[in-house]
Specification:
The chain is of the alpha+beta class. The chain contains 22 helices and 46 strands. Helix 6 packs antiparallel against helix 7 and helix 19 runs antiparallel to helix 22.
């Protein structure tokens, strides 16, 4: 059988494999097995952790199909040399197990500041023993309060805490008297800090120490500063910023939520060549002053006067005799924790795409993408020139700069020139959410080269990519990912631009599954859940936002507070992390018990119907029919539904953790809630109260209906969607809509919602030029008018939860067991798509499902990582018609089972790369594929998402850009043109201009043919 050219190229270019029963990675023996990607608590070589039982994970790359780990061995030592010499601290010896993730250290007690080195090897089912892995390490932080000798210091400056003022500067000098072997800095602050040693910035992290529930948990960072120091006199200098600690946060000009004085705690530990150690620390000898940062606030931006720079203040010998002193304070050290979440970093840079003047006369720069971060300004002009940058997400219908939706957030940065030469500046302690920038006061002619967009967010490895033959759906995927990038900075915020930017629990609980597929969010969400538990009140209620900054009455909304269970359960599903379930169990239990207490306090026990709820937030209705209740779903019914769902998750969690008594207790509670729900809200005919799409979705998704009434409820749901020809769901209903429709076999209806372009729909914002997900279905109306300015964000990720369905239903990759140890590949063609592809870099390795139609032939390429297995469903197929890698599937060595089930063929197979192909006219009809007509005239001006939608251009990209097109980073550039996308990627994706010229040449050949 002849495979399609695209599949041939994909196999040849991306995977360097042979398809004769065994495959190999380029440069790897067909028989070899290697261990790679060693992680300690989700990090590569972490510095300064305080987990006394760190957990180890690795990925296996195998040269043979159907490879499974049969045993493993971990060794730990105090140095590389000791590890290689066999002088070990801990040796597990050979352990018979196929588990390759989350193995806890259980050797001798770990010591403060000590670095530990580890390696692993495995035995597989083909009687191979791998070589030892590359050596990895982790380093402990300061584990005891007594390890901290540093003192808390506050700058002794006159400040007005009611407004943003000049950023404090702190400095000190110390002498290192001997030859330095190693040095560490342990640093935290009230507010934000940026440290320099001998004029060299310490680390590349932004917004340290991060945002936690400061009253309960304060992170510190550990830095290797060995190369910063020298024998002799050294200078240490620190900027402080208001940040979340005392800057504007929440609403109503709220400031100083955690305190009104900034402070620093820093400890430098030096180890000398002779083995001796010395500590330098914050103490009464430090000095304080202010300088060029005149104000800095997260909402309102930063003002910097370069004329006030203090040249040399970060270097030894600087004259600080006119500086003021510091105040010693006793803030305690009992709430200090080592860094838990990933650092905020500069992730990538964007070049602007256009400069224009609006009808109102503003000079505006278009970055081409709604982004989070700031503008790096390059400018040359006279001293004292004031350049002001204002930021906005959208233009109004007349093309003017629109900022009403920012509410009280200024989002304005101002730079005052020093003069004399070209100056380059970017802010330190603020960030903006924007696509458009007005530039005021710029000296000379403004060009695109004067501005660079610096994209920032918490460091999370991209792990998921989805593409299809529908260019608008590809743009939707791009928007989903950029919505996540724009809101995963320290905490999962609702939006990154207006005076809010808080960790709304409802948003993340609906988006968690999609988030965990798109990026490795395990450490990010683990840290945030620690803050959720810290901010729960004594009764167990969960605040609306975490960290909690809204006051004592903002707790306990159904569908929001349930993030306490839904988010850890999602982490367990995608990362196999029972540790997060153990860590959060008491928090999970406390929230369920709070709901139980509130439900028992009314006259109808097990119905939670007495408290405030946000309900199905921003649900949508266009009907003026008096007989139609709109999209409103009864808030109290939603409360009871989530009470049931969280109880269900708690009983399942208890089972995983072996808490038998709790399984019995909460299983009984779950059944009682279901019984009460049915009596109160369900009719004998299968109608759920409110009769809205969301009412049926929650009832079906949460398993609240008796089996005999589920078909009737599904019918009412489908009928409502088909009659209205659009969704009416809000934040709680929308994530469940397509998954529930597909679960009950209504794929065509689900696809109809996906590809709908008029509002309300996922693609409507795309047709309106969106580059991120909107807060409201009609943030910009068809006539160009805006929704209410008081709540109209254009970067809000909640509705991006459709991404889970794209991965798990359209391309069909689902975890059959946690962490994709067992995988389902169940592609669901439809919606007229001729192609869909997903890549998921799971904790076990790379998974892919890529399907394509070419005439009547359906081809499915599948990649299954080593140490996992898969169940593959080939839709509307016959066993006799199928080939796998050009051979008959029967007797194929890596396929352990093949059977016809209804209209489909089901196969079970081990790891490897497989291409299945067969003809099926019935599947073509079901998919609704129509002739696309002649291909367009391709050019480099097409977006990457548009180029991926057509087979001819897709093949060219696969051939010339194999690194990018096999990477999850691909989703992050699908909305850019090819030239933009290449330049907006990290350096590892660097593409020579000659390659772009080759691609353009091949586009011309297609056109000419």
């Amino acid at each position: 059988m002849i495979l399609s050219r695209s599949i041939q190229n994909l196999i040849l270019i991306l995977f360097s494999l042979t398809v004769t029963g065994n495959y190999f990675v380029s440069g790897q023996s067909p028989e070899s097995t290697i261990v790679t990607s060693l992680k300690t608590d989700y990090y590569t070589n972490p510095l300064g952790i305080d987990n006394l039982s760190p957990r180890f994970s690795w990925i296996i790359e195998a040269g043979r199909q159907n490879t499974v780990q049969k045993a493993w061995q971990i060794q730990v030592a105090s140095s590389r040399h000791s590890l290689e010499a066999g002088d070990l601290i801990w040796d597990t010896e050979k352990v018979n197990s196929d588990i390759s993730i989350h193995h806890s250290y259980s050797g001798p007690e770990l010591q403060s500041g000590q670095r530990y080195y580890w390696r692993v090897r495995i035995w597989d089912n083909h009687e191979n023993v791998s070589s030892w892995s590359e050596i990895s390490f982790w380093e402990m932080g300061l584990l005891e309060i007594d390890d901290w000798q540093a003192l808390w210091i506050e700058p002794d400056l006159d400040e007005d805490p009611e407004k943003s003022g000049p950023a404090p500067m702190l400095r000190s000098e110390f002498e290192a008297s001997k030859i330095i072997v190693s040095a560490r800095a342990y640093v935290t602050s009230h507010g934000l800090y940026e440290m320099y040693i001998n004029d060299r910035r310490v680390g590349n992290e932004l917004f340290t120490p991060g945002w936690t529930s400061y009253n309960n948990r304060l992170q510190y960072q550990t830095f290797d500063i060995t190369r910063h120091l020298k024998s002799g006199i050294n200078a240490v200098a620190v900027y402080l910023g208001d940040g979340w600690y005392r800057g504007f946060i929440g609403w109503g000009d709220q400031r100083n939520y955690y305190g009104n004085k900034l402070a620093l705690l820093a400890q430098i530990e030096i180890t000398y060549e002779d083995g001796s150690k010395e500590i330098f620390k914050t103490d009464e000898h430090w000095k304080s002053s202010t300088g060029p940062i005149l104000k800095s606030d997260i909402y309102n931006g930063e003002t910097y006067d370069a004329r006030l720079e203090k040249t040399g203040w970060t270097m030894p010998g600087y004259d600080d005799s006119n500086w003021k002193g510091v105040i010693l304070t006793d803030h305690g050290k009992d709430k200090l924790i080592a860094r838990e979440g990933p650092s905020v970093l500069k992730i990538q840079e964007l070049k602007p795409v256009d400069i224009f003047t609006t009808p109102e006369g503003d000079r505006v720069v278009d970055m081409g993408q709604n982004m989070i971060g700031w503008i790096r300004l390059q400018v040359h002009g006279p001293s004292g020139t004031r350049v002001t940058l204002r930021h906005a997400e959208v233009l109004d219908k007349d093309g003017n700069f629109y900022t009403d939706n920012l509410r009280a957030a200024d989002q304005t940065n101002t730079y005052i020139l020093k003069g004399g030469k070209v100056e380059v500046w970017e802010p330190r302690f603020t960030f903006q959410g924007f696509r458009y920038v007005t530039v005021e006061g710029f000296p000379g002619e403004l060009s695109l080269d004067n501005l660079t967009g610096v994209v920032i967010h918490s460091e999370m490895e991209p792990t998921g990519h989805f593409q299809s033959s529908h260019s608008l759906v590809n743009q939707l995927q791009h928007n989903i990912v950029w919505g996540q990038k724009g809101n995963f900075l320290e905490v999962p915020t609702d939006c990154p631009q207006r005076d809010e930017r808080m960790g709304w629990t409802g948003d993340i609980q609906v988006f968690a599954n999609t988030a965990n597929i798109n990026m490795n969010t395990a450490a990010f969400l683990t840290k945030w859940l620690g803050d959720l538990e810290a901010d729960q009140n004594e009764a167990g209620s969960v605040p609306h936002v975490v960290p909690h900054v809204l006051g004592k009455n903002h707790y306990g909304s159904a569908g929001w507070a349930d993030a306490a269970l839904i988010v850890p359960w999602s982490l367990y599903r995608y990362y196999g992390d029972t540790g997060i379930l153990e860590k959060q169990y008491e928090s999970m239990k406390a929230w369920v018990n709070y709901m139980r207490m509130r439900a028992a306090s009314n006259e109808k026990t097990y119905l939670w119907n007495i408290d405030h709820s946000f309900g199905d937030w921003l649900s949508y209705s266009t009907s003026s029919n008096a007989h139609y209740p709109g999209a409103y779903t009864d808030f109290h019914m939603i409360g009871t539904m989530y009470f049931a769902h969280s109880t269900d998750l708690l009983r399942r969690t208890a089972g995983i953790l072996g808490k038998v008594d709790d399984v019995i207790e909460y299983t009984g509670l779950f059944e009682n809630i279901k019984y009460a729900f049915r009596n109160e809200y369900l009719t004998p005919g299968g109608r759920v109260m409110s009769d809205t799409q969301t009412s049926y979705l929650l009832a079906l998704a949460f398993d609240l209906l008796p089996e005999d009434l589920k078909p009737l409820a599904v019918e009412r749901l489908v009928t409502d969607v088909q009659n209205r020809r659009h969704l009416t769901t809000g934040f709680l209903g929308t994530p469940l809509l397509n998954p529930v429709l597909s679960r009950y076999g209504h794929h065509e209806t689900a696809y109809g919602l996906l590809i709908r372009e008029s509002h309300p729909s996922w693609l409507y914002p795309v047709t309106m030029g969106a580059t991120t997900i909107w807060e409201r279905w009609d943030g910009i109306k068809p006539d160009g008018e805006f929704q209410s300015a008081g709540m109209n964000s254009f970067n809000h990720y909640a509705y991006g939860a459709i991404g889970e369905w794209l991965y798990e239903n359209v391309s069909g990759i689902k975890p059959l067991s946690p962490a994709y140890k067992k995988i389902a590949i169940e592609p669901m063609p439809g919606g007229g798509l001729s192609h869909a592809r997903s890549i998921i870099n799971s904790i076990h390795g790379r998974i892919e499902s890529s399907w394509e139609f070419q005439e009547n032939q359906f081809t499915l390429l599948v990649e299954i990582p080593a140490n996992t297995s898969a169940r593959v469903t080939l839709p509307h197929a016959n066993i006799d018609d199928i080939t796998v890698n050009g051979e008959s599937p029967e007797g194929y060595p890596a396929i352990t089972d093949i059977v016809k089930v209804g209209e489909n063929v089901l196969l079970r197979l081990g790891s490897g790369i497989y291409t299945f192909a067969y003809n099926s006219e019935e599947l073509v009809d079901i998919a609704g594929i129509e002739d696309q007509g002649p291909s367009p005239i391709f050019s480099l001006d097409y977006t990457i998402g548009e180029l991926l939608a057509f087979r001819e251009s897709r093949e060219i990209l696969y051939r010339h850009l194999p690194v990018l097109t096999s990477s999850p980073w691909l989703s992050q550039v699908m909305g850019f043109t090819l030239k933009q996308g290449i330049h907006n990627l990290p350096p590892e994706f660097m593409v020579p201009e000659s390659v772009l010229n080759q691609i353009e040449s091949e586009f011309r050949k297609i056109t000419n043919n």
